[in-house]
Amino acid sequence: MAGGLDYLLYEEATGYAIFKVLIQQDDIGSRLKEVQEAASDLSKFSKMIELVSFAPFKGAAQALENANDVSEGLVSDYLKSVLELNLPTKNKINLGISDKNLGPSIKENFPKVDCISSEIAQDFLRGIRHHGFKILKELHAGDEERAQLGLGHAYSRAKVKFSVQKNDNHIIQAIALLDQLDKDINTFAMRVKEWYGWHFPELAKITPDNYTYAKLALFIKDKASLNDESLHDIAAVVKDDAAIAQRVIDAARISMGQDISEEDMENCSTFAARVVSISEYRTKLYQYLTDKMHTVAPNLSELIGEVVGARLISHAGSLTNLSKQAASTVQILGAEKALFRALKTKGNTPKYGLIYHSSFIGKASQKNKGRISRYLANKCSIASRIDNYSDEPTTAFGAILKKQVEERLAFYDTGAKPMKNADAIQQALSLGATMAADKDVDTDSSDEEKESKKEKKERKEKKEKKEKKERKEKKEKKEKKEEKKEKKDKKRSKSDEGESPKKKKKSKA
User: Fold this and answer.
1) Which of 222, 283, 323, 494 has its CB 3.0 to 4.6 Å from that of 388, i.e. a possible disulfide?
2) Separation in Å, CA 164 to CA 117, 160, 242, 285, 318
3) Which family does it belong to (predicted)?
4) What angle do CA 437, 293, 211 make, to 5 degrees?
């Protein structure tokens, strides 16, 4: 920086400002107390720089767009026009900027502009930020703060904006909770067996399953209450297995367990009920995780399974992070400790991490486990990228990639020739097109059904309105007839009353 700073680019929430540097600072003297204090004094600082131009943003949308571009180190069209109008780009100049990532993009658009984000440039920009609206004459007190607050909220919202359906955060939370629940259920079930085992120790050998044991403990309570009539109820708990139900009743009759008080039994039953409810919730959570994986990462789920796929996403941090990983990294995800230990001791590096839990690794022979894990990691990497970057991913690629892994396993065992990658991609594309067509047909049929239902509803409504109208008209006609009849009756009664005295007079005469 032989010539020092010529201009400064100040990026603000309200717009872009270009300043000309009038007095150059010295690298050595810039840290002196007097120089630092001069930056805080407006009268002294205003003599060091001069405002060339201030280009405000037209609205919040434009401010957000430019903020996103600057954060990614890109020169927006608006910034480009501001620099073109206010910088003497014909001569070579030094431009001070706050973000060094923006430098290469400006240099690409303006070859004669050298971008500098040194300590001196940062001191100048810090001084401009400190004095704010006093230097930028077009702004008023409070404008900067309001603009910064609005832009900050908009920028944060844009960063965390996601598709509700394709959100992998829920998968990470669900798989973590699933693992935690498995540990907790095992611990609690062991405690139930130990507690209820004092009363009915034989039950643990008859029903080794934790969930079934807890349900039986909750149903039986006092073993003395069991009789032949309880057979059907116990069979319903043990999946309609009458033999096991009979064994439970027989064991209860000859049980060596001690009697238990009502208070103790109540506490034991409460805990058993909690174990049952947690186990049932675990089943629901697993179903939720499966559905979520089929929505977010259908190809990865189809290839390696929902649980292993969810663990890979969780360990990587997100589906996007997983898709950016190389196949060699995916292969040893979850085995980092073993890897660094091997590197430190110069031993053999691990062949697999989390993907060891895949059924493909289990199917392979001992000598081929490393080879198949490498091949599987490669396919997992492809599947995760398809899932992450596709707008509407289907299971087509996952199914074909799974077929390739199975054929590779067969090749290691029997030597059968596997499918080529080019053929596999062609098959996947044709399968994807078929799935998309079927989906369109389903949506069309559903739309037709909706339309037909709508038409039926409209017809029904019209018919009901017509019937209602007819009923109303009939009622009105009937009422009118009744009114006419009443009027006639009244007239007749009046005429009869008028005739009767005349008749009386005639009779007297």
Assistant:
1) 323
2) 40, 11, 47, 18, 15
3) Belongs to the NOP5/NOP56 family.
4) 130
In terms of DSSP bridges, do strands 113-116 and 15-21 run parallel, antiparallel, or are they unpaired? unpaired
Residues 326-382: tens digit of each pLDDT: 999 999 999 989 989 999 998 888 988 999 999 999 999 989 999 999 999 999 999
Residue type, 131: H
Amino acid at 509: A
Task: Say how many CA atoms lie within 13 Å of 227 toward its Cβ.
Answer: 2
Q: Which helix or strand (DSSP H or E) is residue 61 part of?
A: helix 60-71
Round to whole Å and give the CA distance between 446 and 423: 34
Answer for the pair 257, 199: CB distance below 8 angstroms, yes or no: yes
SS3 category, 33 = helix
Instruction: Output the DSSP codes for 195-212.
Output: HHTTT-TTHHHH---HHH
The two three-digit tokens of residue 461, written as one number: 């409504």
* Domains (range + CATH), the chain: 7-160 (3.30.420.220), 170-224+256-293 (1.10.287.4070), 301-431 (1.10.246.90)
How many whole angstroms separate alpha carbon 53 and alpha carbon 378? 54
Angle at 420 between CA 417 and CA 421, to 5 degrees: 150
pTM, to two decimals: 0.61
How far apart are the C-alpha atoms of 153 and 104, rounded to whole Å? Answer: 28
Q: Give me the residue label for tokens 């000598």.
A: 367
Secondary structure of 298-331 in the HEC alphabet? HHHHHHHCHHHHHHHHHHHCCHHHHHHCCHHHHH
Percent of the chain with pLDDT strictly greater than 70: 88
Q: Which two tokens stand for residue 356?
A: 């060891």
Compute CA distances 234 → 199, 217, 274, 432, whole Å: 18, 11, 20, 49
Is the CB of residue 44 less than 8 Å from the CB of residue 89?
Answer: no
Residue 10 exposure: Cα atoms within 13 Å on the Cβ side: 28
